[in-house]
Amino acid sequence: MVKKELILEKINLVVDKLMNLGGADYDSDKNTSKEAHKTGLIARDFGIEEFDWPQGVGLYGLEKLQIYYQDTRYDDFLTKWYRNNIDKGLPSKNINTTAPYLTLISLSERTKNKEYEKMCFERAAWLMEELPRTKEGGFQHVTSAIGDRNGIALNDSEMWIDTIFMAVLFLNRMGYQCQNPVWISEAEKQMLMHIKYMYEKKNGLFYHGWSFNRNDNYGGIFWCRGNSWFTLGMIDFLESCGEQIDKGLYEYFTDTYKAHADALKKLQAPSGLWHTVLDDEESYEEVSGSSAMAAGIQKAVRLGILEKEYLSVAEKAVEAICENIDADGTVLNVSAGTGIGENAEHYKNIMKAPMAYGQSLALIALCEALF
């Protein structure tokens, strides 16, 4: 078990690096080849300043750390971050640019800022009323266009497991905050839809995505970070629901979660991490997904969803995460942004680089280790 002193030391390093990752250069995206983009070389995703999913997940880590410390030490940073983006002009509305709103909910609650409250309300309404849907009403995984922050990539009729973390968590939180049963019901439906079309009951793992046009799961790959969006996302989803969730639905979600956790336990590498293609030992071990898995498993034990035996799985992962934090606070071996691939090679070829979500997910895993 990693000592508390070491965890706190690593947290301080990771936070400092996260808050000083710098900005992104959209112009470089316009001059980068499509092949390079496929390996994760997308300038938009780098740094901490842009209003998109990597940065949104990054802010979520700071929010989680404040919860542990029970103070508001990062609120000035968060307020400045949102103010800078509002003044610059927010990018296109899509699934991924919804991620920063998850932390904005909490900030609006603490500061009683009416502008923030309005922004959150309007984004929830947009998800309900304007976001393109797949068959059966699934949230289509619309993303930002590469090289154009005001454009979108429709990803027609596609559902991605990432949506759980980037948008469903937000809608669920807003539903309970506003006591809006329609929003709560929709968030529950979306969680069920993503389990229905991406969960493989033969092994307890999740595919990266589903296409209604193709009627398949693309290459059928069990991607580490994709699975981790469920491992951590489902636990935070259930925490938001509290005791108000329907008992049958709660049991359905937790039964699925237990089967998923059991599958992860069997696939954990000797190092304590998981491979970027979970069932392919030749793929590299990836820290961001491993961190979210460790965080989710620890929290599931704390909330009584998983048995205490799973703590050894998480503790082993936390030890490995600490070993992958450089002297300057950089979380190492983090895969860059990853689109859906047709084979394992696609995921193996994704570049590794310092990313806001890598810093944040490691931070959340370390925070959970302190409880």
Write the layout of secondary structure elements.
Layout: H1 4-19, H2 26-30, H3 34-38, H4 53-69, H5 75-88, H6 101-111, H7 114-129, E1 143-145, E2 148-153, E3 158-160, H8 163-177, H9 181-198, E4 199-200, E5 205-206, E6 209-211, H10 224-241, H11 247-267, E7 274-275, E8 285-286, H12 287-302, H13 311-323, H14 344-348, H15 356-370
Antiparallel strand pairs: 1-2, 3-6, 4-5, 7-8
Helix pairs in contact: 1-15, 4-6, 4-15, 6-7, 7-8, 8-9, 8-10, 10-11, 10-12, 12-13, 12-15, 13-15
Structure write-up:
- With 371 residues, the protein is mainly α.
- Helix content is 55%, strand content 6%.
- A two-stranded antiparallel sheet has the order 1-2. A two-stranded antiparallel ribbon has the order 3-6.
- A hairpin with a 4-residue loop joins β4 and β5.
- α4 runs parallel beside α15 (356-370), α8 (163-177) packs parallel to α10 and α10 (224-241) packs antiparallel against α11.
- It starts with a helix and ends with a helix.
- The model has no long low-confidence stretch (mean pLDDT 97).
Structure at a glance:
By secondary structure, this protein is mostly helical. Helix content is 55%, strand content 6%.
Order of helices and strands: HHHHHHHEEEHHEEEHHEEHHHH
Could you tell me the mean pLDDT?
A: 97
Question: Helical residue percent?
Answer: 55-70%
Number of strands: 8
What's the end-to-end separation, in Å? Answer: 13 Å
> Looking at the structure, what is the overall shape?
globular
Please summarize the sheet with the most strands.
2 strands, antiparallel
What fraction of residues sit in β-strands? 5-15%
The helix tally amounts to 15
Poorly predicted sequence stretches spanning 5 or more consecutive residues: none
Strands ordered across the widest β-sheet: 1-2
Given helix and strand content, the structural type is mainly alpha
Q: Supply Rg.
A: 19 Å
